[in-house]
Please model this.
Amino acid sequence: MDQKTIDIIKATVPVLEEKGNEITKAFYKHLFSEHPELNHVFNQTHQKEGKQPRALAKLVYQAAAHIDRLEELLPAVKVVAHKHRSIGIKPEQYPIVGEHLLWAIKHVLGDQATDEIMKAWETAYGVIADAFIQLENELREDVKENNGWNDYMPFIIDKKVKESDVITSFYLKPANGQALPEYLPGQYISLKLNIPGEAYTHIRQYSLSDAPGKNYFRISVKREDEKAMYPEGVVSHYLHESMKEGDRMFVSAPAGDFTLDMSSYQPLVFISGGVGQTPLMSMLKTVIEKQPERPITWIHAAKNGNCHAFKEEVKKAAKKHKNLKTFICYNDPSSDDLEKKDIKKVGYIDEQWLSEIIEYRHASYYFCGPKPFMAAIYKILKQWEINDTDIHYEFFGPQDELLEEQAITV
Model:
């Protein structure tokens, strides 16, 4: 891009900050009216709740603000690119998106969107789209080279195991018997489901909760609340209540850049809340297997023992590996929980407790859980002046929600 185009784009930053949500809402409405088939790709729950428009507005704003230094957005771009590859976004869909995004900008801004401004945004979108396409093509090539597949492949539920009152594990095997690709501990897969009574296909991402190298993928799914008008849990309820051993579903190859650094022997601290422990379980089992001497602190928070998945699995691992220290926090323990004396804290994880139980302050921290939980953990780690390179987290859903929760910059 020439300097004039850059200057024009940067001049639109204030209006994008003000009108971004209005623009993206108009964009999605227009896009789906002209291309209803794309309803099968986008998360309809996030659409109805307004999460996806807000996330796109944030991305457009960030792109405009960083148009002269787009490389600073690379970490955020990688997160999105992995998801795009996983759910099956194709290069030929980018011009369609660009056409409707430019229409929405013009529609909302009216006479403010001069021909000069629209031409500059057309150029800028082309540059941004090319960056995504190039990265996603590289990811697709990596998948093929790793015995994987692009798009989706049929899998069979080989085993269904109840882990707690709210979490069930699904052991998935390829329907054609194909060997599974290696994946990095912490990665996820996408499921594509056609649910009876639902107008559109549903696609959801679930972390792999076991170590790589098995002849199955294991995902562990929390049954979400069904009270909302359009429940976030439409897929989780279907999986829990309707899918049985032997049933088929369509699965993407593993994706995601929230992965364990196996090149380091730095002490590890895993901190999870609820079902957020699923990617950390994959990491824990991998490091125990491949780096048994590496110090590990495992900290998990749950409501109580009835909601606590993998408790016995982790306890068994801790008995075998002296370098694994485990700590449990319940905010609403039952009388049975208190009698067993497995829990180390009643209430919520806080800075004082963490400072007491974490032996190696200068460690690599990996955490995952509900949005407020993650924001609180991040705040503590920043107060401890932990290097950004040692802070790793996973967040499903539009990324900007977590970033805004604690003003985390990417």
The radius of gyration is 22 Å. The chain has 14 helices and twelve strands. The longest strand covers residues 153-162. The first helix runs from residue 3 to 11.
